[in-house]
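Proteins fold reproducibly. Next comes an illustrative record:
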Amino acid sequence: MIGTIAFILLVLFSIDWFRRNKFEVFMVSHGLVLVYYVTATIHSPNFIIYMAISVALFVLDIAGRVLLGDTLFPLETTLFKKKSDSLVQIQFPKPLPCTKSSYLPGQYVFINIPEISSMEWHPFSLSSAPNDTIMEVHVRALGNWTKKLVDLASQKQQTRIKFDGPYGNLKLNYRRYTNMLLIGGGIGVTPLIGILKDIFFFEGTIRTRLQT
C-alpha cells in the first residue's frame, strides 16, 4: 500500500502544472522512487534485479553527461551582468570536455544558480558560438526564478553556475548557402546570435551575405 501511494504521488507531482509552478516540489518528489523501490523489494525480493538495472542506467546517464561537459560542481561566472531591468547576461567557462566541436550554434543548456535554488534547472539558448572561449546565455525576467536572477545580478557581479547540456540539433546546414535571412524577436534572438557568430567565424571560407 505504501509503495502504491508513493507511486501515485510520484505520477501526480510529475504533471506539467507542478513542473512549471512548483518545481522544487517536483524535484523533491523524485525521492518517492526510493520508497517505491524499498517497499517493492520487501514485497518481492526479485524486484531488486529491476532496481539494479534502473540504478545502473541512471549512473550511466550521469557519467555520460559529465563526459559531454556537464558540471557536477558549480563554476564561477566570468560575466554576470544586468543589462536592463529585465535582462541578464551570463558568461561561464567551458568545461574541458566541452570543446569547440562538441556543440552546435542554436543549441540550449539547462542552468542552475545555487544561490537562487539548488534544485531548479531552466533551459536557455546559447548565444555563444562553438569557437568562443566561453559559453554564454541571455536571460529575460519572465517568471519567479528569472526575476530572482535579475535581482541577484543587481546585487552581485559574479555568481556560481551549474549547467547541463548542450541539447538540441539544428537540422539546417546554413553554411552551404550564400544568402540567409534570420528572423527572431525579443529574447528569441539569442540562438540567432550564436549562428551569426559562427557565420562570421567561417566567413573567410564561405561567402555569406547578411542582410539586416
About this structure: Residues 206-212 have pLDDT under 50 and may be disordered.
